[in-house]
Amino acid sequence: MKALWRTFIMLPLLGMLLILGTACGKQIPDIDPALLQRKASLLVVTEPSLSADARERLNNALTEWRITKQLAFEWLPDVKILSEEQLEHIRTGSFDYIVVAGHELVHATLPQAETVQGPKWLLLDDRILRQSLTVKGSHISLKAVQEDRLRQEWDEWVRQQIVSERPIEWVTISAYPVPSDWAPAEEADTVHLADAEGWASQFQFAVKAHRPSWVVAFAPLDAAQLQRLRAVQVPVVDINKTTLELQWNELLLSMQAMMNSGTWTSGPRPYEEREIRIQKNL
Questions:
Q1: What is the dihedral of CA 178, 183, 185, 188, to 10 degrees?
Q2: DSSP 3-state assignment of 252?
Q3: Is the dihedral of CA 16, 19, 20, 21 positive or negative?
Q4: Which of 17, 78, 83, 173 has its CA 20 to 30 A from that of 233?
Q5: Which 8-state DSSP code applies to residue 102?
Q6: How many Cα atoms within 13 Å fall on the side-chain side of residue 250?
């Protein structure tokens, strides 16, 4: 009798559970099989100057992503400028992102990228950008180290020389003024413009009069101008020898986060601190 009573109670309960389960199932949308098969598609373009270590790390990361992150990628190494055939491959392909790395290659690619608006272009400049670049198009993002970051990197060293009373003779050109807190107006005679007529003789005279501890080239100078600096037999510091090393492991992590989240920031923007290493090369 008790067994019959339990059966009488359980049958309606089972029915209710089946109804609820069916109702809940109707609230879960079917997953489009095409979405499951969709892979992020990436084209990487690098210069011939990419180091062997960077090549290995980049290749290992991309290969791992292809397996674990469902990433489809192509890599064009040793490119100086994208050919028309390569541009056509990009236009007709299904790439979501084009990553271009290397100073000369980035500057050559920027005007080309403006005309190819399908994919998103991430340009990675690996030198200090002394003059700003204009980026046209919301599909282009340029990562670079700008002039203010260069000054920040050198500020501590310059101030150490000032505090230690180790005077500096500055050489620059009119397009690159020396920061006023490095060379105040009252020390204007320590700043020399290498694009001014007769600058070399005035520079030599000033070095003899001031007896500086350093001669610092602030602007990019040509070989002949740099030779004149070295000729005065004073230690020369060329700020333009500051180098930038891309940290590929960190950059690839940033790219992965960008692709996963779908976020995009166009135009010029700075690197994150973890993505680069700056060396002053004193």
A1: -80
A2: helix
A3: positive
A4: 173
A5: S
A6: 11
Residues 6 or more apart whose Cβ sits within 8 Å of residue 104: 47, 80
Neighbours of 255 (CB within 10 A): 20
- Tens-digit pLDDT string for the chain (282 aa): 444 344 444 444 444 433 434 444 333 333 334 433 456 789 999 999 998 988 998 888 888 888 887 778 899 999 999 999 999 999 998 899 999 999 999 999 999 999 999 899 999 999 999 888 889 999 999 999 999 999 999 999 999 999 999 999 999 999 999 999 999 988 899 999 999 999 999 999 999 999 999 999 999 999 999 999 999 999 999 999 999 999 988 998 898 899 888 899 999 999 999 999 999 988
Can you tell me the distance from the alpha carbon of 237 to that of 216, in angstroms, rounded to the nearest whole number? 5
Residue type, 81: I
Distance CA 99, CA 182 (A): 37
Look up residue 191 and give its two tokens: 């700043």
CA of 282: how far to CAs of 157, 162, 218, in Å? Answer: 10, 17, 13
Place of tokens 């960008």: 258
- Amino acid at position 78, single letter: D
**52-68 and 248-261 helices, crossing angle to 10°:** 30
Q: CA torsion sign, 155 to 161 to 162 to 167?
A: negative
